[in-house]
Amino acid sequence: MEFRDLKKQYQLHKSEIDSAIQNVLLSGHFIGGSPVIQLEEKLADYVGVKHCITCANGTDALQLALMAWGIGEGDAVFVPDFTFFSTAEVVPWVKATPVFVDVDKDTFNISPYSLEEAIHEVINEGKLTPKVVIAVDLFGQPADFPAIRMITEKYNLLLLEDGAQGFGGRIGEKMACSFGDIATTSFFPAKPLGCYGDGGAIFTNNDEWAKLMQSYKVHGKGEDKYDNVRIGLNSRLDTIQAAVLLAKFDSFVNMEINAVNRVAEQYSQCLSDVVDVPKVKEGFVSSWAQYTIRVASGRDRLKFVLAENSIPSMIYYSKPLHEQMAFKEQQRIYCRLDNTIELCREVLSLPMHPYMEDRDVEYVCATVKKIHS
Ligand SMILES: *Cc1c(COP(=O)(O)O)cnc(C)c1O
Questions:
Q1: pTM to 2 decimals?
Q2: From the CB of 165, is ligand 1 less than 6 Å away?
């Protein structure tokens, strides 16, 4: 069994994907060109925002947003303690300070209570200026944006949505990657919408920021890339990746999002009486980048026995960000991070993808139940 079966997805869409790649090869244009423009238009339209700017990966996307906002030394950027490293990695990169915030145990997403506590603490301390909140759509579920937006408005902060795992999710009819002042996503192969290499995108309604990020991603270009008006990056999505994404897009929208939700429902029905299953808030729809259970005791043994039964599982994440050696300079903790510490001991992600057969889900459930009841 595969944890995320990218081979099966390719086999099923082989002819569209092969001919999309072939067309790029025949065109001889490997950077930029119409597939990139078409993709940006399609994604902006799907998400419901004015600008989509593709870039080289989801980490650059976050960094480009902070660069466009001019975030730097002395600025506090609030990030969840429980997320992939990238979310916070970009903060010291622009010389700002990450302030780690606890998450909600049911949704795994940034806790509005903890966020407000951390903001107060930063203000009281008086050393850093609160500037940005990065809210992550972790494991596919949009963060609690109605509550977070109230806080960013109250304290006049910018909201950056890290939708690397959340593309395709929504709250009501409003799509993930439309909630932040700027939102980002990743097309890393295993993300909900993946390409066949690295890729990322940025979304915003703001014309000025969009223009700045267009410039920053191509060496700080002015009129063209040989007119350089600021220090930027080389961060483009290449044409083959854009073509792959275009070829996969319709089935992502029309089939895959529904399919992962069916798998999640099947898991939850079967497992809710033996482990803590993930909870999706009323009116929220997840794109299920991961299906993550909580096992109060015996998580590592469960993982081991699953492996013995040929079932792959993963621990996302085993270490709170504030314990990562890379952040040892950012030792100051501004709020309690107890939920994150607990989750790191308890979480286990099970195989999840749109092409998972019913019998595979049943086999995983039966195996978990055999060990855990
Ligand atoms: C994957 C991921 C990123 C980074 O995306 P890359 O394309 O790998 O750079 C950022 N944030 C989160 C939450 C992610 O899961």
A1: 0.98
A2: yes
